[in-house]
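sorry for the late reply, my laptop died twice this morning and i had to redo everyting from scratch. anyway the thing you sent over, i finally got around to it. pasting the sequence first so we're on the same page, its 110 residues, then the predicted structure underneath. double check i copied it right bc i was rushing
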Amino acid sequence: MDIPLLPADAFGDRFSLDELPLARAPAGYAVQMLDTDKLLDRLTGAFLPVRSEQLDGLFDSFDTAYAAAQAWVEKHCQHPDDHRLAIVPASFDHVLNRHVLIYGVLCGQP
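ok and here's the structure:
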């Protein structure tokens, strides 16, 4: 499929984890499917729930999260503007052994 390049803000505005005023410290960047608790798994390229033990959903940088999101859009979206993805800060709870959506489930529509 021949997908045009997505704009720099296709998955939300670029941000630095160090500059966000968050109540919970983020562990990395994640690609969230809007309206769900699913994150893009780095190993399989599939979206898995945050409670999935197989999920490896934390990216080290905004750029690597963006590249993974763009690759998913290229593979799965006939119309790139309809992707419903956002790059978000996320954490990992070692007690519960699961990823944490710091902002919770983001909605696709306000």
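Residues 62-76 form the longest helix (15 residues).
thats about all i looked at so far, will dig more tmrw
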